Fold this sequence. Notes:
By secondary structure, this protein is α+β, with helices and mostly antiparallel strands. The protein has a domain at 1-110 and 126-157. The protein is built from 8 helices and 7 strands.
Amino acid sequence: VAGENFDQSPLRRTFKSKVLAHYPQNIEWNPFDQDAVNMLCMPKGLSFRTQADNRDPELHSFIITREDGSRTYGFVLTFYEEVTSKQICTAMQTLYQMHNAEQYSSVCASSSCSMDSLASSIDEGDATSLAKLQRYNSYDISRDTLYVSKCICLITPLPFMQACKKFLIQLYKAVTSQQPPPLPLESYIHNILYEVPLPPPGRSLKFYGVYEPIICQRPGPNELPLSDYPLREVFELLGLENLVQVFTCVLLEMQILLYSQ
């Protein structure tokens, strides 16, 4: 388990993650930092879900800044895949049995009233809500399907956000599709790593993903630096007033700290 979150129910806890594979093994100008990439790909660690939870894929990005000021950019697609290990499913069931026993004993120890009086003090609406909460926050190995988080990540020298996002989504669709892609998955990974060059400054580059072509553009020497992040999301996350305040602080050269989960 990652961190001390034993008070949380097992499906709400996070577990230690690790890098399963990375390609290529190493690059002279960009050595692979396994611990940093692992932490930035899964900052909260592994998480488990059931069929009752939302399992839509999510994309996020990160930056690794080295001592010399050089940067590399990571783009991560996190998704959930079914747990096929009977051992892990049994372990989750055991964790829930232990958690429920602890919860029951703590309630009995802290309550001086009987279970009858406790039940009578809860109205029907609360009881229904409680039952729903327990249903969506429980795991029964004979009834539920267990899923675990997994991610695929692209690390690039420039922040080609949209191109990386499109490639990762297409790769994910190829992995999860019932129909195999036109070529083996290794072909697409080899292509993006070894055969797709950086576009020259001021030029665009079109390359083929798994299903559709992808275009990325690099600013020229006299243009503003590449900023491929959607501005609309900034407005949605911060709101207009906060964004104006942040912009004012930038113009006044104030220090700014953004804190987020």
